Amino acid sequence: MSDSANATARIPSGRKSLAASSERIALGPLDGRYSGAVAPLVDYLSEAALNRDRVGVEVEWFIHLTNNNVLPGTEPLTAAQQAGLRAIVTEFDAASVQELADIEKVTVHDVKAVEYFIGNRLADLGLERLKPLVHFGCTSEDINNLSYAVGVKGAVEDVWLPAARTLVAKIAEMAEENRAVPMLSRTHGQPATPTTLGKELAVTAHRLTRQLDRVAKTEFLGKINGATGTYAAHYASVPAADWQDVAKGFVESLGLTWNPLTTQIESHDWQAELYADMARFNRILHNLCTDVWSYISIGYFAQIPVPGATGSSTMPHKVNPIRFENAEANLELSNALLDTLGATLVTSRWQRDLTDSSSQRNIGVAFGHSLLAINNVLGGLGRLDTAEAVLAEDLDHNWEVLAEAIQMVMRAEAIAGVEGMEDPYERLKDLTRGQRVNAARMQEFVSGLGLSADAQARLLDLTPGKYIGIAESLVDHLQK
Ligand SMILES: O=C(O)C[C@H](Nc1ncnc2c1ncn2[C@@H]1O[C@H](COP(=O)(O)O)[C@@H](O)[C@H]1O)C(=O)O
After folding, report:
1. Strand partners, 302
2. Domain Adenylosuccinate lyase PurB C-terminal, which positions (predicted)?
3. Domains of the chain: residue spans and CATH
4. pLDDT tens-digit series, residues 320-332
5. Contact assessment for residue 48 and residue 108, using Cβ atoms and an 8 Å cutoff
């Protein structure tokens, strides 16, 4: 194509700026086309939710210090004052987000802005005198680490884990339904000892469940021990208090596990552990997506068309496995972030650097891509029908997979003293390696071996579809 032809193909200059639109237009897909699917995470992992949690932690610290008479000159707040303080959190809304943003423009410090935001509300509660108690003894990370721990815990326990458990339950249900449906295996992509479709799905459900059980046991650690984790400011100002006890009680009151030994930052090791488990779950799910995609491709699953939907824009016959393809991509994106977070959050130069602040802002994105993938896999699985006839036909075209069974029966016969059972592996290899062997040829071979009557009857009864060991009952392990 000539240069001038290229030039005319460009989007014309002078177009309206989308960035200047009065409706804010999302840069990324999680806040755009997928915003509905990831909306449940907004209340836990958005910047607004982080700020609300920061306000919540500051407010609870204020109440904790007063209720426990930690500082001379304080006394427990009245019920109305406590309710008023907590209302700052429960009433936190879009206007609060804007007010905080306006304060932050001046402070150029996000946590300092939270302190002022709360301080501005104390006079109305008759607590003006206690303004210095807001953020008392705290470094920003005291508030940040607790807020992130509360937010991530909520996102895991209320959103991600329930969604993941629903998906695994669906896979387990499919495993149950297909427990007795024989299927040709393909190790190295080549026909191999058959299994059942249900048993293969059960393997995946079992693997995913193990990862979810690990996630469910996550220890969400928190600390509140000052600028370098020494309680120096606390003891300088209030020497009589048992500050470790105050801190431990506070962290535990938030539903977290107290970390007694840190620098300025909570060390984030628990986050790395959690993200590794989530990433492993994502990887196993990715494996399911590519397997199911391949099974659809060879006709083992039929896809139930969505009424009104289009498969291909040009090939009208198509129903594409797009839910699984979308999930694959989103699991990869989630893992790229989870891996980065896990790898980088565990390091901080000397007593702190601020890199964690910037990377933790993407925790919600990592969760969002995973949640989206989980939704898509769930939707995709819900539109699959097992094509049992196709699976059966495939088995019937691969009688040579019985070679393993025959040579193993011959070995057992030899050990039991039956004559003429020499070189079983080699004889079956001569018969089957790289060749198609049909039912008649296989049975003729078996009949000519001189097996004991019992062994011969057993082998003549065997078909590829029956050569599945105890695959069907192995699905029961899922119930345990
Ligand atoms: O309690 C403190 O603040 C102690 C201070 N360390 C800090 N700890 C936590 N936050 C801090 C720190 N420093 C800055 N900021 C503020 O963090 C915000 C970073 O914003 P972004 O780059 O968007 O992630 C952005 O709002 C920053 O202003 C120290 O000097 O050790």
Report:
1. 385
2. 348-468
3. 41-136 (1.10.275.10), 141-304+319-387 (1.20.200.10), 398-478 (1.10.40.30)
4. 899 999 999 999 9
5. no
